[in-house]
Design a protein that fits this description.
single chain; 325 residues; alpha+beta; 7-stranded mixed sheet; 3-stranded antiparallel sheet; 8 helices; flat
Length: 325
């Protein structure tokens, strides 16, 4: 009798010991054994999100002026006045200043939408709703960051890119399609100095300059002469402290979202550099809501991000087209 009782008890509790849980409908993931702990403590693997940079390289002067997808912000620009020679008694020539307005179109939208089943939510020892919503926000930032870095370089001024860059000199080689600039640890500092020359010839302010590059360029910089602490005026080499910071007046940012293209037999990168006055970005989470699902017992969380970006000063954006040597 005791043996029969023990077998019956084992049969009753087996689903919970084995983590079988409540059966899932076809197409619904079974979280038992992953998010729902069995015998050992459940543990989420830490997720590393791509570092985002758009908040550092763009101004957000017009972010408060948008409310919904399709809105348009008219950005007024300052005209350039002509300075003329003056002679006593001479007739003055009047200038009627004109400067075309820029339009910031808030015409892009991204969303996330997920459902968390009540049973999964109750049985999990983790806050699934919060962790998934946080993931949605991070993925949103990464997606937007990638779209910006893939589009902005096309709007750089013609004198800020190509093999004949430089508004005054026209002799700075920043690389071009079919002939990318080949970067090595030996020449990367010279290339940064060339980019600074292009910026100087456009009269960029000394502060507010930035550059975004892929991880392999950071490695080249770490192997370059910058590792000599005395060059930077630092107490420790960058190899020791791991910080690049401000180099040749550019605040350097490493990003895995830098746009790469195939050019012949090589993978090439459009390395953006610029000033914060050149790029404007506007974003607004128009709706984040939590609601009950109609067809099952669960909670839906969804978020919508409406945004837009625009190069309002092409002369303040540069494109360094490179490949790894």
């Amino acid at each position: 009798m005791k043996r029969i009782f023990m077998l019956a008890l084992a049969w009753l509790i087996a689903p919970f010991v084995l983590g079988i849980g409540v059966a899932a409908a076809s197409g619904h993931p079974q979280y038992s054994g992953t998010f729902i702990p069995e015998v050992w403590s459940g543990k989420l693997v830490e997720k590393f999100y791509d570092a985002t940079v758009f908040g550092e390289i763009a101004n957000t002067d017009y972010e408060g002026e948008i409310s919904a997808m399709g809105d348009k912000v008219i950005v007024r620009t300052i005209p350039t006045l002509i300075i003329r020679d003056y002679q006593k008694g001479g007739t003055l020539i009047h200038q009627r200043p004109e400067s075309p307005n820029k339009e910031l179109l808030v015409d892009k939208a991204k969303y996330f939408d997920f459902i968390c089943d009540d049973i999964d939510r109750m049985q999990s020892d983790l806050n699934l709703m919060d962790s998934w919503a946080a993931d949605g926000g991070e993925q949103m930032k990464t997606t937007i960051d990638t779209s910006i870095l893939a589009a902005v370089y096309a709007d750089a001024a013609t004198t800020n890119k190509g093999a004949t860059a430089g508004r005054k000199s026209l002799d700075v080689n920043l690389g071009a399609t079919g002939a990318p600039l080949v970067l090595t640890a030996a020449n990367i500092l010279d290339v940064l100095i060339d980019c600074a020359q292009v910026a100087d010839e456009q009269n960029w302010p000394e502060t507010g300059r930035w550059m975004v590059f892929p991880s392999w360029m950071r490695s080249l910089l770490m192997k370059s002469d910058l590792k000599n602490a005395s060059i930077m005026g630092d107490e420790q080499s960058i190899v020791r402290n791991g910080r690049l910071g401000l180099v040749e007046r550019f605040m350097l940012y490493m990003s895995n979202n830098v746009d790469d293209v195939t050019d012949g037999a090589f993978t090439c990168w459009h390395v953006l550099f610029g000033h914060k006055a050149g790029l404007t970005f506007a974003s607004q989470i128009t709706k984040v809501e939590e609601l009950r699902a109609e067809s099952t017992f669960g909670t839906i969380v969804r978020g919508l991000n409406v945004y837009g970006f625009e190069v309002i000063k092409p002369e303040a954006i540069g494109d360094l087209y490179v490949r790894k040597g």
